[in-house]
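Exercise 7. Given the encoded structure of a 403-residue chain, write a plausible sequence.
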C-alpha cells in the first residue's frame, strides 16, 4: 500500500541547504515510547478572481453553488475526517495487517484514553483537516498529532522535540519556525501544522517519488535512516515500500499506529469508543496583532478567560504578543470582532498594513482565510463572486469587504 502526492511541487533549494541537512540527519520529532502509547496522565483542554462583468453575470449561480457546497459539507468533524480517509481498507490485505491489528488491539484496550486524547483535539481538529484537504493528502495525516503528542500543543520529549507535531529544534530552524524566550513557533499550532505538512510533502517529492508512507517513516527516523534501509531492501530484491523496510522499532510502529487509530475512528462503535462531539466549522478566528498586547489584556477585551486564550496561543511563552513577533492571536470563534474593535484595527488589515485584500497562499482555504480576517466565509464568497470556493489559486487576490 502506498499513497503518492497528487501533484509534484518545485522547491527553491538554493536557500534551503539547512533544511536538506535536517532532512538527511534528523527527524523533526522524537517521541518517547510512553508518550506514543496513549499516556493516561496527559489530560488538558478538551478559482481565479472574476472581472466586473463576469461577477454580475454569475452572481446568482455563484451563491447557489456555494450554498450547495455548504449543505454537502459535513457539520461533524469526525464525519468530515472519515470522508477523507484513503488508507482505511488497504492495510487489511497488505503486508502490514498484523502490525496494524496489534495497535488496534492496544488502543481498544483503553477506550477511555482515546476519548481523552480526541477531546484534547477539539480546538484543532477541524482546522487541521482543512489544511490536509487543501493539499490533497489522505485524511489519516490529520491524526499524526494523535500518535506524536496525544494532541497536546505543549508536549515535549526528552530528545528536545516540542509541540503538536513534535518538531526538533534543528528542523524547526530549517522550516522557519522561530524560537526565543518569548516565542516558540513549534508550539504555535497554525504555523507548526503548515511547517509539518510542508516537510512531509517535500520529503515525499524529494526522496520517495511522492510516497507518503516513506515520508512518514523519515518524519520519525530521519531521511538518512530511511534511505539506508530502502537501499538495503532494494538490494534484496524488494520493492522498497514502507512495509519492506527494517527500521528502528519506533519507526516500524509509526505508520501502523496511525492506521490503527484511523481504523478505530472510522468505526468507533465497533471498538467500544465514544468520540466527543466536534463541530465541522472553525473553532477559532485569527485576529491581527496591531500593537503590543498581553494575553490578560487581550482576554479581557475579547471577553474570554486568559486561560482559554493561552491554550489557543501556546507559542507565546511570555504571554505577550508583539507585532514584530507574531502576526495574529487565535481567539475563540464569536469573540474575534470584539477584540478587533478593541485593538483599534481591522480584520481587513494584514501584517504589512495593506487593507481589504488577501493574496491567496498555497494551502489557503476559504474558511481559513475568513477565520484569519474575522469575516464570514459566506460573505467572503459573496464579495468575490466565487463560483467554486474550493478552487482558490495561489496569487489570487480576494477582497475582504463588501464595499
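Solution.
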Amino acid at each position: 500500500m502506498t499513497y503518492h502526492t497528487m501533484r509534484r511541487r518545485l522547491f527553491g533549494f538554493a536557500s534551503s541547504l539547512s533544511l536538506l541537512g535536517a532532512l538527511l540527519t534528523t527527524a523533526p520529532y522524537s517521541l518517547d515510547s510512553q508518550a506514543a502509547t496513549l499516556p493516561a496522565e496527559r489530560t488538558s483542554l478538551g478559482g481565479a478572481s472574476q472581472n466586473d462583468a463576469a461577477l454580475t453575470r454569475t452572481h446568482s449561480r455563484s451563491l447557489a453553488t456555494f450554498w450547495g457546497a455548504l449543505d454537502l459539507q459535513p457539520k461533524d468533524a469526525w464525519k468530515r475526517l472519515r470522508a477523507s480517509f484513503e488508507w482505511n481498507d488497504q492495510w487489511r490485505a497488505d503486508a502490514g495487517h498484523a502490525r496494524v491489528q496489534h495497535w488496534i488491539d492496544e488502543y481498544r484496550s483503553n477506550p477511555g484514553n482515546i476519548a481523552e486524547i480526541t477531546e484534547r483535539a477539539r480546538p484543532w481538529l477541524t482546522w487541521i483537516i482543512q489544511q490536509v484537504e487543501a493539499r490533497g493528502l489522505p485524511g489519516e495525516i490529520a491524526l499524526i498529532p494523535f500518535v506524536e503528542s496525544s494532541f497536546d500543543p505543549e508536549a515535549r520529549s526528552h530528545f528536545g522535540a516540542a509541540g503538536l507535531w513534535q518538531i526538533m529544534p534543528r528542523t524547526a530552524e530549517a522550516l522557519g519556525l522561530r524560537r526565543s524566550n518569548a516565542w516558540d513557533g513549534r508550539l504555535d499550532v497554525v504555523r507548526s501544522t503548515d511547517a509539518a505538512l510542508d516537510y512531509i510533502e517535500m520529503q515525499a517529492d524529494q526522496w520517495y517519488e511522492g510516497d507518503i508512507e516513506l515520508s512518514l517513516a523519515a518524519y520519525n527516523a530521519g531521511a538518512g535512516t530511511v534511505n539506508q534501509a530502502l537501499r538495503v531492501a532494494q538490494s534484496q530484491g524488494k520493492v522498497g515500500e514502507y512495509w519492506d523496510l527494517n527500521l528502528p522499532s519506533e519507526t516500524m510502529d509509526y505508520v501502523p499506529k496511525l492506521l490503527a487509530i484511523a481504523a478505530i475512528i472510522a468505526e468507533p462503535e465497533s471498538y467500544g469508543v465514544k468520540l466527543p462531539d466536534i463541530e465541522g466549522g472553525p473553532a477559532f478566528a485569527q485576529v491581527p496583532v496591531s500593537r503590543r498586547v498581553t494575553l490578560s489584556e487581550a482576554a479581557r477585551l475579547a471577553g474570554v478567560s486568559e486561560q482559554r486564550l493561552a491554550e489557543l496561543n501556546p507559542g507565546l511563552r511570555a504571554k505577550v504578543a508583539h507585532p514584530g513577533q507574531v502576526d495574529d492571536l487565535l481567539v475563540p470563534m464569536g469573540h474575534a470582532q470584539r477584540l478587533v474593535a478593541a485593538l483599534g484595527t481591522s480584520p481587513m488589515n494584514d501584517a504589512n498594513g495593506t487593507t481589504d485584500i488577501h493574496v491567496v497562499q498555497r494551502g489557503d482555504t476559504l474558511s481559513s482565510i475568513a477565520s484569519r480576517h474575522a469575516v464570514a466565509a459566506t460573505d467572503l464568497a459573496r464579495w468575490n463572486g466565487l463560483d467554486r470556493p474550493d478552487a482558490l489559486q495561489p496569487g489570487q487576490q480576494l477582497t475582504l469587504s463588501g464595499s
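Remark. The longest helix spans residues 52-72. Students should compare their own answers with the one above.
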